[in-house]
Amino acid sequence: MRAWSFSLVLSISLASAATFPDPEQGFSNSSILKIRSNLLEIASASWELGTAAEALLELSWPGLSVFNATAFPPPGRLKATAFPTDVVNIANRTVSQRPSGSLSLIANQGSAADPASLGVSVLLANWTRKQISNHDYSEAATDELTYLLEIAPQSDEGAISHRANEVQLWSDFTYMVPPFLAYFGALKGGLPGRNLLQIAYDQCRLYRDALRDDSGLWRHITLGSFEDKTHWATGNGWAAAGMMRVLSTMNHTSDARRFADHQANLTKWIDEILTESWSHQRPDGGLFNVIDDPKSFMDTSSTALIASVTYRMAVFRNDTSLIPAANRALKLVKNNVDGDGWLQNTVNPITFRDPLPTTEHSPEGQAFLLLLQAAWHSFFIHANSRGL
Ligand SMILES: *[C@@H]1O[C@H](CO)[C@@H](O)[C@H](O)[C@H]1NC(C)=O
Ligand SMILES: *[C@@H]1O[C@H](CO)[C@@H](O)[C@H](O)[C@H]1NC(C)=O
Ligand SMILES: *[C@@H]1O[C@H](CO)[C@@H](O)[C@H](O)[C@H]1NC(C)=O
Ligand SMILES: *[C@@H]1O[C@H](CO)[C@@H](O)[C@H](O)[C@H]1NC(C)=O
Ligand SMILES: *[C@@H]1O[C@H](CO)[C@@H](O)[C@H](O)[C@H]1NC(C)=O
Ligand SMILES: *[C@@H]1O[C@H](CO)[C@@H](O)[C@H](O)[C@H]1NC(C)=O
Ligand SMILES: *[C@@H]1O[C@H](CO)[C@@H](O)[C@H](O)[C@H]1NC(C)=O
Question: Quick one: CA torsion of 191, 195, 200, 206, rounded to 10 degrees?
Fold first, then answer.
């Protein structure tokens, strides 16, 4: 009798473990310190700096990131120990170096979109600034918005171009622009703020309409002088991660209820990328550089980014069905960080199609590791609060 009830208890706890899997262990603090300092050493392109700023925010100042209900509005007066110095330093350097006459946060990038990836850090620097008479951040963010909405070329349907000199749509755009538009809107509030939330959503929708195909995955580049029709893993990661930030921003504004339908669609669009990506996961936990092309190569960088979105989505929806895949990915990614804190076996982020030699490093890959750690940690807290 006792043996029977014992096995009943055991099978119940096994069943709940199956529906709510334990998180894999995250990175050690010493590893994160090295990864972070390597990132700061090599991030230099506009999108690398923007992604770095977001990664630092999510990792070290989670209460200020859009994944936290406390994000809006950011507190005007922060104690020195709560002040996001590393994030604001990136915003400060960006705005200080902006040439006069440039609406874009960084001038002459070729990309119409990439500089906007710095916009969230610039807005945060404005809202938390100590010197209240300093309007430099606010003006720089407003100019960037003007550039995106009024100057950058647009497709016939109204998608803002990823490139400055022609209309060309890249999946990467989804991480660079809509999160900034949504954050700007969330801070602005009222009707103008709602309009910006709507535009952020519409840009995600238009990009999905242009890039998604029947596989459920997104192609990399369409329109303009060349195309990349492959399901580039990093591009799918940019799309899913960008939409996740827009979704979480909407969810934490006072207008969230008005955007319930938008949130449901974004959730579906992110989920289709995650589900389809992990259906191609290699036995070692990694993803291929072209997700559905086993003749490409394993890429740790996109594996980290897509795993990070998977942990975020699991918390957002309280749905852990993809956590086993994310755990396998996290384990693989950890095994690919060398003793000096460099991520190995990444794609070359500039060519999209070649592996990077071991002596070279991917700035965005380093940032994805921090995004992964932050997302994992949030899931870890969530899982523990369920008593697991
Ligand atoms: C790792 O860092 C976190 C955040 O700074 C801290 O809360 C935690 O105690 C640290 N863990 C160890 C083992 O030092
Ligand atoms: C939100 O931020 C607060 C303050 O930093 C923190 O205590 C809390 O754990 C965060 N919640 C989530 C879900 O990240
Ligand atoms: C950057 O920081 C310096 C030193 O605190 C300050 O004087 C300057 O105004 C800041 N730049 C911007 C654009 O706010
Ligand atoms: C900058 O911050 C102030 C609050 O200090 C706010 O009124 C203003 O709207 C902010 N600018 C932007 C573009 O968000
Ligand atoms: C935030 O998202 C969750 C998960 O989808 C949803 O249950 C909740 O209603 C959303 N909150 C608002 C205010 O829209
Ligand atoms: C959500 O998606 C459905 C199906 O595509 C569409 O009919 C609906 O208009 C979308 N909702 C919003 C707010 O765009
Ligand atoms: C989240 O999911 C767990 C496991 O399925 C369940 O026990 C719990 O009640 C859910 N929490 C919420 C807030 O829905």
Answer: 160
Q: What is the phi/psi pair of residue 163, to 5°?
A: -105, 155
DSSP H or E run through 48: helix 46-60
3-state SS, residue 160: strand
19 lines ligand 7 (CB under 6 A): yes
| Model-wide pTM > 0.70 | yes
Measured CA angle at 310 (ends 204, 124), to 5 deg: 60
- Cα(259) to centroid of ligand 7, in Å? 23
CA–CA dist 195, 168 (Å, integer): 24
Q: Which of 70, 382, 384 to mutate to test the pocket of ligand 2 (most atoms within 8 A of CB)?
A: 70
Of all protein residues, the one whose alpha carbon is nearest to atom 6 of ligand 4 is 127
pLDDT over threshold 70, residue 21: no
Strand partners, 163: 111
Six-digit token pair at 49? 């700096």
Which token pair is 106? 């960084």
Tell me the β-bridge partners of 298.
288
**Where do the structural domains in the chain lie, given as residue ranges?**
29-386
Calculated CA dihedral for residues 42, 48, 50, 53, nearest 10 degrees = -40
Q: Which structure tokens are listed for 350? A: 């500039």
Class of domain 29-386: mainly alpha
pLDDT band (50, 70, 90) for residue 24: confident
Whether ligand 4 lies within 6 angstroms of the CB of 187 is answered as: yes
* Length, in residues, of the chain: 388
Phi-psi region of 345 (alpha: psi -120 to 50; beta: other; left: phi over 0): left
